[in-house]
Amino acid sequence: MTAAGAERRAAAGFRAVYGGAPDGIWAAPGRVNLIGEHTDYNEGLVLPLALEQRTLVAAAARRDGLLRLYSARLGGEVISLRVAELAPGAVKGWAAYPAGVCWALREAGVTAAAGGADVFVESEVPLGAGLSSSAALEVATALALGGSPLSGPELALLAQRAENEFVGVPCGVMDQMAAACCTAGHALLLDTRDLGMRQVPLELAGLRLLVVDTGVRHALADGAYAERRAGCAKAARALGVRALRDITPAQLPAALGALTPGLRPLVRHVVTENQRVAETAALLEAGEVREAGPLLTAGHHSLRDDFAVSCPELDLVVATAGAAGALGARMTGGGFGGSAVVLVAEARAAAVGRAVDEAFRNAGYGAPRVFTVGAGSGAGRVG
């Protein structure tokens, strides 16, 4: 679907459901994280890029304190809520994400949110694929409900608060920052400790960046993500540091020796992954994107072996892509399913896609979805 087509569909859908025209349409992208997984809540470095696939929110303000939410993709019925009654844990399912944003805006003193709104959601971002459909929905909703005067980082922090406190998912801020702050043609080098960021050119001439959606769906609220985060926090306390970000590669051997066996792999992943992010960003800035391939694959092995958040389907994508001539590949997102990202020479992209499809078929898995991605723009008003 073209950008204009998605916007027309959102406007038409709003009219069909609510009987009038929206005040506007706002959009935020999904993201693929090139490298830097499970480092954001450890105050480390990440390197995401915005997808061209977006979530669009058409909205019209109300004055009666009623928040009405609709998505054909997520239930197909209008969910009506009272803004004054919104509280953490009070809303379940997909509606908790936009409702949580409305709550966070109200808590932040954004008066426009208190009156309520009619909201229609149209999304191109695959759900549960590790491409941050939730953050795209949160940031687009924040803009639609009156958050436009906020800066990109302020929007991201507000959306993160909604997901942490209202929905109950202890995510870091990377996904929301990518949705709010990325620029086209660039990856975002983000320091999650102070939200310092640098737009890093992503020159893909002669290369392709593929996303392979395994079809294995995950839910970060199921506890496994929270367990990893709690383990990292426990390790930081044991080492006497504010966050695992503070452990340097040179300090890693001593740090591992001071920890119980169960915490060592978590720390090893975080410390080495931060180093891989820094090295990858330097390669991108030098125009040597293809040299980053081995770093992507090393990151996957660390996520698989140390952090234990991969799955057989993701491992199969990475192994098959490498054998078929890809420059590098890794799982992207929180793990336990979702997608992998593959860096490949343009001339080998089709062959890699066919090899992955055949490998899934031979393994008895459902067909994966393989598509090319580019570095898109961050959130904004589109209609």
Automatic annotation (TrEMBL):
SUPFAM superfamilies: GHMP Kinase, C-terminal domain, Ribosomal protein S5 domain 2-like. It is an enzyme of class 2 (transferase). Transmembrane segments: none annotated. The keyword Zinc does not apply. Residues 14-60 form the Galactokinase N-terminal domain. PANTHER family: GALACTOKINASE-RELATED, MEVALONATE KINASE/GALACTOKINASE. Belongs to the GHMP kinase family. GalK subfamily. This is Galactokinase. The gene is galK.
